[in-house]
Structures are given as structure tokens and as C-alpha cells.
């Protein structure tokens, strides 16, 4: 992508943050591209521009919590101190089991909730079932949105193995709970009449006999007990999944795909862009993190190497050796910049209408609010 193309399709981050119609910003992308830092920087910048913001992050590095002046992050929003301006920033880290427990406690009476939460299958499901973290992130998003305390929610999505996991999450657990196995296991409780129950029990005995061999009798008993206790809640899971999916598609939601100027990261970003379009999700643009630049763009890699070789032929001296080394470093940097530009060009040729914000690489890690402000400023300059 050429510089002119980037300027033409520049993502105006401040306009997005200042638009009061923007209620939710979802930062998505593969792991290791600075997604969590981007979400925190956006939250801080929005707060310092007058918004009441909560950042929902997923398993952030400890240094990120420290950068916001917090000793820890947990499932409860905490006020971030040191924010300038009239806005307010709170931050929290998703605890997926606690969030699942909150759902159960809200939907069941005390005794039913106890039965569910003490069930071994539930404990496994709420702590490590495939897709549970993604689902509970969306469950928590729904809770925060319904609360109404904040006028902007910034979501840092889980680092998924696949670029598509996050978008599938709102329906995955609901589909599991609506699945054939669950329906069969709940059937005995829904059939009326002794004769019908007797006939069903014969079939169920044969069926559960097979399942016992596959799953093990103990696991099957745990699942059956869990299903019996959760039966009245299944519809609620489906309704919330549908509401969350609709919320993600709403005009007040903006998706930002976060990537680095590298082949694999941009390939993942392309998957996200395609999926967002296919699911009619509102894509605001691409944040391209850790982009390299130089203060001497007019000095090409070829000219820098040639100058370094000329200095090598001059009479040896400390100054000459230092200058030659710096020229070679500059040549290597220009090669990196050229490679990144080719990657951006390739992405832009396929997605010419996707707006982009370039974020130059910082010399070090972010460790305080000033570091997050620097990231926010670079995002705004794009």
C-alpha cells in the first residue's frame, strides 16, 4: 500500500471515539499483535476525551494492569486513576468461571444453582470447555451493556487459535445446549404418562448403555444430572446468544481488526475481514501495529550499503567504523520497511475499502499511562 493510499483510507480513530453513537468497540485479531494494549490505549484516549469507558480484557499481561495503575484486574470493573479530562476509565479482566456462575445464580433458585455449580460436568464446562472463554466474554459484554453505567465498552477478544473462533462463540454453547445429545438426555423429564415413560426408558437404557461404554458411566451420570438441573435454563442461553449476536451487528458497535505488518498476522486479519463482512458485522477498520519507520526515508538501503562499503575502504578509524555500522543498520531497517510496505500493498489490493491506522513501533514496552497515551496518539495520527 502506498503512503497516498494509506492517507486516502486512513482510519480516523478520534472520530470513532468521539461519536456518541459508538457504544461498543471490539478489538479482534490473532494473538501476539498488541490487541490488548490497543484496547487499553483506545479506552484511555476515549476517557480523556470525555467518555465513560470500561475496558474488558482477556488474560492481559501483568504489566498492562500495572500500566493502568492497578495491582490486579478481576471480574469486577475497577477505576483507573490518573485519567485526565472529564471522562472516566474502568478496567476488568474476564473470569470465565465466575461469569458462568453469575449466569447460573441469576437464572436459578439457590438450591438449583448449588446443584449445578457442584456438578463435576459443570465445573469442567465452566472452566475449560472449548469455546467457553469466548462465549463468556460475550456474556460479560451483554451484562456490561445492560448495566448502562458506561457509554463506551472496549472489548479485547480472546487470542483464538483460529481467527473465526470468536465470531462463532455466541452460538457455539447455545448450539451445544440445543444439541441432539442434550435433547435425548432431557427427554425423560418431558414425556408424560407411564406407558410413554416405560417405552422411553427401554430405549434410553439401550442408548445410555452405549454412551456409558463411550463416555464412562460416571461421566454420563454427571452429564445427565447437569442436564436435569440446567433444563429450565437452556432457553435462556439461546436467547442471550441471539441478543449478543444482534448487539454485535448493531450500528453502535465497531469492530477493529488488529494485526502486525507480517504475512501470517495479515492473513488472519483477512480472515476476520471476510467473516465480518459475511456476518454483516460493522467493520471500522484495521489497526496495523508495530510498523517500522525511519527519520531518513530518502536514504535507500542500496545507498546506505554503498556508503558503508566506501567507509570500509577508507583509512581505519573509530568514527568511520561507527558510521559504517550505523549505515548498515539503516539499510537493514529500510529492508524491513520495504517488506512491510509490500505486505500492506498486498492487503490493500484485496481490501481497498478497509480503512487503516498505522501505529509505529515503540522503542520499549508500555508500562504506565503515559505509554498508553503514546499508543493512543499514534493510533489517532494513523
TrEMBL record:
State the Gene Ontology terms under molecular function.
ATP binding; ATP hydrolysis activity
Domain of life according to the entry = Bacteria
Q: Which residues form the ArsA/GET3 Anion-transporting ATPase-like domain?
A: 22-293
Under the heading Pfam families, the entry gives:
ArsA_ATPase (PF02374)
InterPro entries recorded: ArsA/GET3_ATPase-like, ATPase_ArsA/GET3, P-loop_NTPase
PANTHER family recorded? ANION TRANSPORTER ATPASE-RELATED (PTHR10803:SF26), ARSENICAL PUMP-DRIVING ATPASE ARSENITE-TRANSLOCATING ATPASE (PTHR10803)
Q: What is this protein called?
A: Anion-transporting ATPase, ArsA/GET3 family
Amino acid at each position: 500500500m502506498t503512503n497516498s493510499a494509506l492517507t486516502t483510507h486512513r482510519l480516523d480513530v478520534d472520530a470513532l471515539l468521539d461519536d456518541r453513537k459508538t457504544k461498543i468497540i471490539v478489538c479482534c485479531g490473532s494473538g501476539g499483535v498488541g490487541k490488548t494494549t490497543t484496547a487499553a490505549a483506545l479506552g484511555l484516549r476515549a476517557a480523556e476525551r470525555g467518555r465513560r469507558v470500561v475496558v474488558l480484557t482477556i488474560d492481559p499481561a501483568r504489566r498492562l494492569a500495572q500500566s493502568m495503575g492497578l495491582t490486579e484486574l478481576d471480574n469486577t470493573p475497577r477505576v483507573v486513576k490518573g485519567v485526565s479530562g472529564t471522562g472516566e476509565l474502568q478496567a476488568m479482566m474476564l473470569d470465565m468461571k465466575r461469569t458462568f456462575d453469575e449466569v447460573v445464580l441469576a437464572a436459578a433458585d439457590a438450591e438449583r444453582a448449588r446443584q449445578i455449580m457442584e456438578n463435576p460436568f459443570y465445573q469442567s464446562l465452566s472452566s475449560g470447555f472449548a469455546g467457553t472463554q469466548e462465549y463468556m466474554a460475550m456474556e460479560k459484554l451483554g451484562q456490561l451493556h445492560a448495566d448502562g453505567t458506561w457509554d463506551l465498552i472496549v472489548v479485547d477478544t480472546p487470542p483464538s487459535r483460529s481467527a473465526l473462533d470468536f465470531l462463532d462463540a455466541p452460538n457455539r454453547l447455545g448450539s451445544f445446549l440445543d444439541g441432539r445429545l442434550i435433547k435425548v438426555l432431557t427427554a425423560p423429564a418431558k414425556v408424560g404418562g407411564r406407558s410413554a415413560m416405560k417405552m422411553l426408558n427401554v430405549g434410553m437404557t439401550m442408548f445410555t448403555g452405549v454412551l456409558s461404554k463411550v463416555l464412562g458411566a460416571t461421566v454420563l451420570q454427571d452429564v445427565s444430572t447437569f442436564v436435569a438441573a440446567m433444563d429450565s435454563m437452556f432457553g435462556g442461553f439461546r436467547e442471550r446468544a441471539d441478543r449478543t449476536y444482534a448487539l454485535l451487528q448493531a450500528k453502535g458497535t465497531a469492530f477493529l481488526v488488529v494485526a502486525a505488518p507480517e504475512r501470517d498476522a495479515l492473513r488472519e486479519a483477512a480472515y476476520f475481514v471476510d467473516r465480518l463482512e459475511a456476518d454483516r458485522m460493522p467493520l471500522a477498520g484495521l489497526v496495523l501495529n508495530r510498523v517500522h519507520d525511519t527519520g531518513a526515508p530518502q536514504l535507500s538501503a542500496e545507498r546506505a550499503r554503498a556508503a558503508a562499503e566506501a567507509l570500509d575502504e577508507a583509512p581505519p578509524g573509530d568514527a568511520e567504523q561507527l558510521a559504517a555500522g550505523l549505515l548498515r543498520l539503516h539499510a537493514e531497517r529500510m529492508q524491513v520497511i520495504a517488506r512491510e510496505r509490500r505486505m500492506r500493498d498486498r492487503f490493500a489490493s484485496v481490501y481497498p475499502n478497509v480503512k487503516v491506522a498505522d501505529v509505529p513501533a515503540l522503542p520499549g514496552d508500555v508500562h504506565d499511562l503515559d505509554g498508553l497515551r503514546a499508543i493512543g496518539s499514534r493510533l489517532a495520527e494513523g
